[in-house]
TrEMBL record:
<dbReference type="Pfam" id="PF01070">
    <property type="entry name" value="FMN_dh"/>
</dbReference>
<feature type="domain" description="FMN hydroxy acid dehydrogenase">
    <location>
        <begin position="11"/>
        <end position="380"/>
    </location>
</feature>
<protein>
    <submittedName>
        <fullName>Lactate 2-monooxygenase</fullName>
    </submittedName>
</protein>
<dbReference type="InterPro" id="IPR037350">
    <property type="entry name" value="LMO_FMN"/>
</dbReference>
<dbReference type="InterPro" id="IPR000262">
    <property type="entry name" value="FMN-dep_DH"/>
</dbReference>
<dbReference type="InterPro" id="IPR012133">
    <property type="entry name" value="Alpha-hydoxy_acid_DH_FMN"/>
</dbReference>
<comment type="similarity">
    <text>Belongs to the FMN-dependent alpha-hydroxy acid dehydrogenase family.</text>
</comment>
<dbReference type="InterPro" id="IPR008259">
    <property type="entry name" value="FMN_hydac_DH_AS"/>
</dbReference>
<dbReference type="InterPro" id="IPR013785">
    <property type="entry name" value="Aldolase_TIM"/>
</dbReference>
<keyword id="KW-0560">Oxidoreductase</keyword>
<dbReference type="InterPro" id="IPR037396">
    <property type="entry name" value="FMN_HAD"/>
</dbReference>
Amino acid sequence: YEIYLNGMAGAVPRLPTDLTRLEELAEHRLGAGPVGYVAGSAGDGSTARANRAALDRQWIVPRLLRDVRERDLTVEVLGRTLPAPLALAPVGVLSIVHPDAESAAARAAAAQGVPYVLSSASSTPMEEVAEVMGDAERWFQLYWAKDREVTRSFLARARATGFSVLVVTLDTPMLGWRPRDLERAYLPFLHGVGTANYFSDPAFGAGLAKPVHEDPDAAVLHFLGMFGDPGKTWPDLAFLREHWDGPIVLKGVLHPDDARLAADAGMDGVVVSNHGGRQVAGCVGAADALPGVAEAVGDRLTVLFDSGVRTGDDIFKALALGARAVLVGRPYVYGLALDGHSGVEHVVRSLLAEFDLTLALSGHRTPATIDGACLAATPV
Ligand code: FNR
């Protein structure tokens, strides 16, 4: 009701509450390079479209007369209680859209109590991000480097600075074919501080002939050569288990058999995701893959979801399809681009307010009662 009260007092929200309009506004304000980086997806954009189509063909079937005065949005995720089933997805090199970059996103997440997942490829060293977050919930996303020492160093740094959950992104052993970025010679790596989290790492530095500031081009090439490793296989996960004593979540899982392998390998969760459509073109829409994964491992692993979430009803649908919570990517990046940490807070608050209303108007007081019976799918 805050928005209505403010409206009656003559104040309208500074940013659109419709996140599609917010996205359009941000794309209009940002230059072609940054828009290409954020909006860009693999190939002709087919997977990003599939993500939306998969959510758009699910429809909520509300229930009535169920006393929804008091609602409680909290969910248990990986042994922690979150205020709502929402977290900010890891997005690298946020300095491309705003000078306050990851620190601003992290501050906003902390203010709203939602977990912030910091990318390995952040433009801000993880220690600085931890500093602005205080005790707030933060997770660390790992790009699993070829260089074992760098991986070990990242895990030790993340642990020492209070990151609690390790999110290992497995869909990016190399970067996808992203025409809008390729046309700009891959903007993130031309961007001076693009990889500061690596550049500040002692193990990364040890692999360079000269210090980063003396030969930044060589440092970027070194980064590109080692940040991912297409040679990894399932048994390699034992290394991560050995060096991380908190929960480990595998991000990018779409096939039920991979979800089973994750459970067999002693992992704690999966994020059903196709990286927002940025890796494999012609890939299954993430929400279409979600029920299969939830069915395969829902009783053994925490199932999270991202790719295409834009509204509160999308969150509801993802939960009904089997997710415990969702991550959101591009919308908060656009909020950041338009208004720094306030813009990110605006996006989080809008999503949560809409989710709360959707929950109530569909006849639910908590996320726990949302299940497959709450949806009707458009017949294909
Ligand atoms: C990403 N994503 C991502 N994922 C990851 O594990 N590490 C990373 O560094 C990045 N970087 C990144 C940059 C940009 C610009 C985008 C848009 C996305 C993927 C991200 O975590 C998430 O999976 C998607 O963004 C979810 O899809 P939506 O919400 O953007 O549709």
